[in-house]
């Protein structure tokens, strides 16, 4: 359940980036890691309030990722390079940024935890900590916000139009480049929030983005990439299967299990939610 | 002097890896980002065959490379219909699964402890214990790989692969069984990556899963992109430069942890730069 809600934030970001910019953003884990580190800096080093630290870190991550988009992706987009070129470029970004983070912050683990872990409550036979309840609430709110945003606001409509048919949208006067940028920033911001939330419970380290990237890929593929309800379903499904796997097999096979799921679903495409492949 | 031999051996191993991946990326247009998996399979197979079963070198390298080739079939066959970035994801997944197997199948791979005490190569009952003799052996395999890949890509087989890359529909229309060619390309590429793995295992004599992380696959991938897709000379140059360049950082006197990260940063910047501004790489022909 908790894992599911974090995966949801990750997968939502990943899936809207894919749906609009049409490539697998292998640097998605970087936004997550950056979010966690920025929150760490604002909260622990500068001693800001938790909500303020989180908002600042999310904003900052979105800005950084806008810069990344400008340097590494926008050029390829305007040249209409094939999507794999963007994938390769994002791999480059991921390798670079991860090492940069390791140099700047050091490779040892950090944490946002303060003092003792608060005692958990028992709910339906499972132990749940206050932080985890907050995670659930925040991710639920963000899911609702995102859905409303896409359905109701002008920007959301423009975003959906662009992801449907970029050429047509630019003809009717939508600035597709700025839609691409804002979607990328939005998707990265979601990952950054996920990173900050996770940092409340577990350690922060430079390669934490690997696992996050894996989860976002698997969860969004399960649900049908580019599909928002699908991503939510895929995330909870993944969280469930993983925990079931840990219980039945062993914790060290966790990544193996999710990757086998991934390959299984890639081969089974078009997936559960019937999203057809885009050209 | 030893440093030079070390660099030659490592360059040789990476040249084999890069050439074999180039067969997939540059010639067949198959976006495999999990090449490190086959490298790891070759290395582990060699280590297990040599330490547990005491295979002679030639039998062992053939067996280990064949096991890697078989795994190439296992991943190449089901992913036939996948194209472009989906294939990249599937191979990425495969590489992580293989890493997870190395790490968790304790009885076979000894998990994170790794396999130590892999014997040095003995050829015609002469042990190749000195660095230079091993360099010669690696050099032999590099030449063999260059020869094979060159022959392959200049043959009818290579032309069909290029046809598949350009337009697989048209290749099917002129009566080519593209499924067979794609799988074969995967098997051959995996076979050579397996050879590189064997050479690595006997060189370092100790392997553990951390040598075959997904970064390793990305590294080989960036060597191909850097050198230029579809170019044999480019692959050789790309691999040699990217192996030797980071060594230069050592002379700057950075602490080793920072140096390792600097190396990664340089790779990252290079990939982004090449793909954005010089997509054909150093010596490649194919444009985006």
Description:
- The complex is a heterodimer of chains A (279) and B (288).
- Chain A is an all-alpha fold.
- Chain A has one domain.
- Chain A has helices at residues 2-21, 28-45, 50-78, 83-105, 130-152, 154-164, 166-171, 176-201, 208-223, 228-248, 254-268, and strands at residues 121-123, 126-128.
- A two-stranded antiparallel sheet of chain A has the order 1-2.
- In chain A, strand 1 (121-123) and strand 2 (126-128) form a beta hairpin.
- The longest helix of chain A has 29 residues, at 50-78.
- By secondary structure, chain B is mainly alpha-helical.
- Chain B has one domain (2-212).
- Chain B has helices at 2-27, 35-52, 57-76, 84-104, 106-109, 131-154, 156-166, 168-173, 178-204, 214-227, 232-250, 256-277; strands spanning 122-123, 126-127.
- Chain B has a two-stranded antiparallel sheet.
- Chain B starts with a helix and ends in an 11-residue tail after the last helix.
- The model of chain B has no long low-confidence stretch (mean pLDDT 81).
Summary?
The complex is a heterodimer of chains A (279) and B (288). Chain A has 279 residues and is mainly alpha-helical.
Main β-sheet description of chain B: 2 strands, antiparallel
Largest sheet of chain A: 2 strands, antiparallel
Rg of chain A, Å, rounded:
18 Å
Averaged pLDDT of chain B: 81
Tally of DSSP β-strands of chain A:
2
Strand order of the largest sheet of chain B: 1-2
Helices and strands of chain A, in order, run as: HHHHEEHHHHHHH
Instruction: Provide the structure class of chain A.
Output: mainly alpha
Q: Proportion of β residues of chain B?
A: under 5%
Largest interface, C-beta within 8 A: A-B, 44 and 44 residues
